[in-house]
Structure formats: C-alpha cells, structure tokens
Design goal:
With about 170 residues, the protein is α/β, with parallel strands linked by helices. It is built from 4 helices and 5 strands. The strands form 2 sheets. The protein has a 3-stranded mixed β-sheet with strand order 2-5-4. Strands 1-3 form a two-stranded parallel ribbon. The radius of gyration is 16 Å and the shape is globular. The relative contact order is 0.16.
Length: about 170
C-alpha cells in the first residue's frame, strides 16, 4: 500500500504547513490492520475504525481506497471523520488518508481535525484550488488551530508526545 518514506513525507509536509501555528506532528506508533479495512466503501466502514482509537493521540488511518459516502461514484484522497454511535466517545474523531493521496492531503485533513472548514482562497491548504503559492493557513485558521490544540490538551483529548532523543545522545 504505502511505505514508511511515503508516510514520513506526508508528516514532513504537514509539519512545514503547520509550522506557523506552533503545532507539529510525529509518528508515535505504526500498526497494520487486517485487509478488511483496506477499502472503505461507506459510513459503516469508517465508523468501525473508531473502535481502534488511541486516547490522547491523533489517529491517522492509511487505506488503499476511500469512497465518498455522499457521492459513491467518487473516490476521496482523505477525510476527517467523527464516528457516530453509543460505543464511541462523544468527541472521538480521526483522519483517514488514501494511498493515492497527494503530498498535502494529510495537512488538509489535520486542518479539519483542528476545526477549520474549506476555504475559497486559492493556495490555502483548506482549499481544493492549490493556486500558485505554497500552501498556507490564514491568520484566522492559525488562531483556530492554536485554540483547538490548547482545548484538546486541557481536556486530555491529546497529550504532548514524549520528546525525541537523537540517536547517540544520552
């Protein structure tokens, strides 16, 4: 499906785009799920992933294909999803990224995770129109990300990752 280099590139691009917000990401763990989750065809397929969430983290699921649940003839590169049902915590949400996703899709979906909606501004990471400029968040979006990050930390929905110790350091 995708290799570690593909995942690392998605995270690197997300970190570059999120840098002005003071929020950054890193892979803490990687898990392989059984093949029944490789192709997500409907809402139920997406909801089922919510049973495997890790408290205090942003769970990102990488799948082979991701069908649009509102327009079934269309495939998606990524989504921010909130599972519905009694078995899920009320604030549960996660990101799904397809193996065909472009390099900025993870950043776009993380933008949704932190509360941003789509933007009509070309080049804005929350726009479907890439424009002729590097992808960016506008001032309001950056403020929303910082506000959401503080709220997620305060509520315990996210916890800061352990500091990374460089190899060879003590």
């Amino acid at each position: 499906m995708v290799d570690d280099a593909w995942i690392d590139a998605q995270v690197r691009v997300a970190n570059e785009i999120f840098a002005p917000t003071g929020v950054s990401f890193r892979v803490v763990e990687r898990h392989t799920m059984d093949g029944s989750h490789a192709r997500l065809e409907d809402r139920v397929d997406r909801h089922v992933l919510g049973r495997t969430l890790h408290p205090g983290r942003i769970d990102v699921f990488l799948v082979r294909s991701l069908r649009d649940v509102d327009e079934p003839s269309r495939m998606r590169q990524g989504v921010h999803w909130r599972p519905r049902g009694e078995e899920y915590p009320p604030r549960a949400h996660f990101v799904i990224v397809s193996s065909v996703a472009g390099p900025t899709v993870l950043a776009h979906e993380l933008g949704h995770y932190f509360g941003n909606r789509h933007s009509p501004t070309p080049g804005n990471i929350m726009s479907y129109d890439r424009g002729d400029v590097p992808p960016f968040f506008d001032a309001g979006q950056r403020a929303r990300i910082r506000f959401s990050a503080r709220r997620f930390l305060r509520r315990g929905e996210l916890v800061p990752a352990e500091p990374v110790t460089p190899r060879g350091a003590r």
